[in-house]
Design brief:
Its EC number is 3.1.3.18. With 227 residues, the protein is an alpha/beta fold. It is built from eight helices and eight strands, in the order E-E-H-H-H-H-E-H-E-H-E-H-E-H-E-E. The structure holds 2-phosphoglycolic acid and magnesium ion.
Length: 227
């Protein structure tokens, strides 16, 4: 595939830019422990992430006996967010090569956007804690607008705030592929993210096993092959 024209590079957060599974797991287990439910391991929890915090709690309950006899998810959410906010970057780190990619993208003059279903406050706290916020021109969380991925209002708003020019989204789940499709943006899918479905089966535009792979798919980063 010929490299894609790209002026705006947009990234998903959880499972794409940052491996946040350790801290999300601890926060979910904090909620589950308060309900006398068993703890879940990060390998299980990572497949539950990508559609917002409430959905994560809902899935955690479903996995540990169901939603009967426990408070509503909306009532469990504040406890989850309080704990998570206090431990947001204890174990969460950018995936290998992610920061180098951000450096290359900035050096090539690309604008960077973040389009995540993580709540806005948690997004900003995590990005600040990992010193990533300054790379981004726009960061929009899942509770900041009237809809979140795959609702096109989310990615469309990121695009509108970034400015003109072709865009590419990097994501890790079916939600990102659907969001890209809804907004007419090609999607590079990372194979190391949180998707329960294998990345190659998500129907993205291209697949990335390593962030170094991104360069050959984006015209501003692609170097002519050496002869
Ligand atoms: O569901 C979440 O909390 C975040 O998910 P995302 O960054 O992968 O969109
Ligand atoms: Mg994700």
């Amino acid at each position: 595939m010929a490299p894609l024209d790209c002026r705006n590079l947009i990234l998903d957060l959880d499972g794409t830019l940052v491996d946040s599974a350790p801290d999300l797991t601890r926060a979910l287990n904090h909620v589950l422990a308060s309900l006398d439910r068993p703890a879940l391991d990060p390998q299980t929890v990572r497949h539950m992430v990508g559609q917002g915090a409430a959905k994560l709690i809902e899935r955690g309950l479903a996995h540990t006996g169901g939603a009967e006899g426990v408070p509503a998810v909306a009532d469990l959410l504040p406890g989850f967010l309080d704990f998570y906010g206090a431990h947001i970057a204890d174990g969460s780190r950018p995936f290998p090569g992610a920061v180098d990619l951000l450096d290359r993208a900035r050096a090539a003059g690309l604008r960077l956007g973040l389009c995540t279903n993580k709540p806005q406050a948690m997004t900003e706290a995590l990005m600040d804690a990992l010193d990533l916020s300054d790379y981004f021109d726009v960061m929009i969380g899942g509770d900041a607008l009237s809809g979140r991925k795959p609702d096109p209002v989310h990615l469309d708003t990121v695009l509108a705030r970034l400015g003109d020019g072709p865009a590419v989204l990097l994501g890790d789940t079916a939600t990102d592929v659907a969001a890209g499709r809804a907004s007419g943006v090609p999607v590079g899918v990372v194979s190391f993210g949180f998707s329960a479905i294998p990345a190659a089966e998500l129907g993205g535009t291209f697949l990335i096993d390593d962030f170094a792979d991104v360069d050959r798919h984006l015209a501003p980063l692609a170097r002519p092959a050496r002869v």
